[in-house]
Amino acid sequence: DTAVSQTPKYLVTQMGNDKSIKCEQNLGHDTMYWYKQDSKKFLKIMFSYNNKELIINETVPNRFSPKSPDKAHLNLHINSLELGDSAVYFCASRTTGTGYGYTFGSGTRLTVV
Amino acid sequence: QKEVEQNSGPLSVPEGAIASLNCTYSDRGSQSFFWYRQYSGKSPELIMSIYSNGDKEDGRFTAQLNKASQYVSLLIRDSQPSDSATYLCAVNENFGNEKLTFGTGTRLTIIP
């Protein structure tokens, strides 16, 4: 199946821990994103990579570090997790260029306790 | 601060009626506009895109764009219970900007 796949789907962890979320797309897209969706459903961009190069880095705590080993993969590592990091994190991809919508992954629901 | 605004709802519409969802945006240079549907617990799904002023129809869905008024809307004809979801408006700003800015979404409920 052609898709954007994220793992894990659910992540429950204690404050202070470090965790990673992985994303892979087999759509041949050049650009990948991480978005955070809060409890009010607001989707806010965090990072974007184009062909392994960081192109968007919004105001995000430096505890969050993205990494793109190749254009089909974009991972997100989070250090020293805090309660406020609890949210759904979506990976997305699209073909480069204005006018193309995103294809989203299924999301990772992160709960920090 | 570039913004995309939607009425958060909830919007309740009887089955078979027309549901009308509205979105305004602040950046006059915006070029591309998208509507996503998100079911509870699921990821957003692209349902419509529009780039030029006027209407664009796809099945029961019609997107309308008015760049002069900085307004984009989505009409759903013959609403079905399966249309109950949150609808997200997204705007791609100037050419060369790879970022989509999302509205806060409108929760739509179709009443059987």
Characterization of this structure:
The complex is a heterodimer of chains A (113) and B (112). Chain A is mainly β and 113 residues long. Chain A has no helices and eleven strands. Chain A has strands spanning 4-7, 10-13, 19-25, 31-37, 43-50, 53-57, 64-70, 73-78, 87-94, 103-104, 108-112. In chain A, a hairpin with a 5-residue loop joins β4 (31-37) and β5 (43-50). The model of chain A has no long low-confidence stretch (mean pLDDT 92). Helices cover 0% and strands 54% of the residues of chain B. Chain B has strands at residues 4-6, 11-14, 19-25, 32-38, 45-50, 54-58, 61-66, 71-76, 85-92, 100-102, 106-111. In chain B, β9 (85-92) and β10 form a beta hairpin. In chain B, 37% of the residues are buried. The model of chain B has no long low-confidence stretch (mean pLDDT 92). The A-B interface holds A 31, 40-45, 48, 50, 55-56, 90, 96, 98-107 and B 31-32, 34, 36, 38, 42-46, 49, 51, 86, 88, 90, 92, 94-102, 104-105.
What is this structure's SSE topology?
The complex is a heterodimer of chains A (113) and B (112).
Chain A: E1 4-7, E2 10-13, E3 19-25, E4 31-37, E5 43-50, E6 53-57, E7 64-70, E8 73-78, E9 87-94, E10 103-104, E11 108-112
Parallel strand pairs in A: 2-11
Antiparallel strand pairs in A: 1-3, 3-8, 4-5, 4-9, 5-6, 7-8, 9-10, 9-11
Chain B: E1 4-6, E2 11-14, E3 19-25, E4 32-38, E5 45-50, E6 54-58, E7 61-66, E8 71-76, E9 85-92, E10 100-102, E11 106-111
Parallel strand pairs in B: 2-11
Antiparallel strand pairs in B: 1-3, 3-8, 4-5, 4-9, 6-7, 7-8, 9-10, 9-11
